[in-house]
């Protein structure tokens, strides 16, 4: 770490919450969070490779341990998708699998102490790297906006463009209350992706700050190290539940929204 501010706990935390950015075009018209993009793509490739490794040696008889584990995970997600979504689309289960396991892999990076990633990167000349993509609101908004466009696609495919537009303008109060219907439906549709993104981001970002605070506490002498170790272990065990739970909630709400978008009001 370069800079005197990093000698203080505040500087240390701010340093680890700083994204590695790159500007596109003149000035700062478009700023990319390079660490979020690289880490998210890397975690996606990891889960694809893990599933590919399970299918590569798949057998119709007694499965191996990894194949059995992957099959159990996929069957769990498939069952949740089938129980929640009752429409005709066959895309919902692949969407649910992608969302759940991708978010789960990104969330799991929280279990790696920040310095375990930051220190090696500093030796390579990279001084800022925020390791958890889901602790970046840009990543969670990107995923939720993708779900929003899927909702529009499912709704228009099920009702037709005319039927969707008519329902958007006339439900729930009838055609004579069209302005109120329009405002209500706009708020309803926009609130879904925003709440999806903010729920996941808030939990992951808050957890990241607590982990950093505990890490700082561990550097405050022997008593601080003992307290930091105890608090860190407890918070880590708690996050073993939070990490898959947040991925599950994002997946389930996405399926519910896709199902609701096809239903008539």
From TrEMBL:
Encoding gene (name): atpB
HAMAP family in UniProt: ATP_synth_a_bact
Pfam hit, one: ATP-synt_A
A cellular component annotation (GO) from this entry: plasma membrane
UniProt-listed Gene3D superfamilies: ATP synthase, F0 complex, subunit A
Function: Key component of the proton channel; it plays a direct role in the translocation of protons across the membrane.
Keyword set, alphabetical order: ATP synthesis, Cell membrane, CF(0), Hydrogen ion transport, Ion transport, Membrane, Transmembrane, Transmembrane helix, Transport
Compartments (UniProt record): Cell membrane; Membrane
Gene Ontology MF terms in the entry: proton-transporting ATP synthase activity, rotational mechanism
UniProt-listed InterPro entries: ATP_syn_F0_a_bact/chloroplast, ATP_synth_F0_asu, ATP_synth_F0_asu_AS, F0_ATP_A_sf
Family: Belongs to the ATPase A chain family.
Provenance organism: Marilutibacter penaei
BP term (GO), one: proton motive force-driven plasma membrane ATP synthesis
Organism ancestry: Bacteria, Pseudomonadati, Pseudomonadota, Gammaproteobacteria, Lysobacterales
Membrane topology: Multi-pass membrane protein
NCBIfam families in alphabetical order: ATP_synt_6_or_A (TIGR01131), PRK05815.1-1 (NF004477)
Domain of life: Bacteria
Membrane spanning residue stretches: 37-55, 91-117, 137-156, 209-231, 237-260
Protein name: ATP synthase subunit a
SUPFAM superfamilies: F1F0 ATP synthase subunit A (SSF81336)
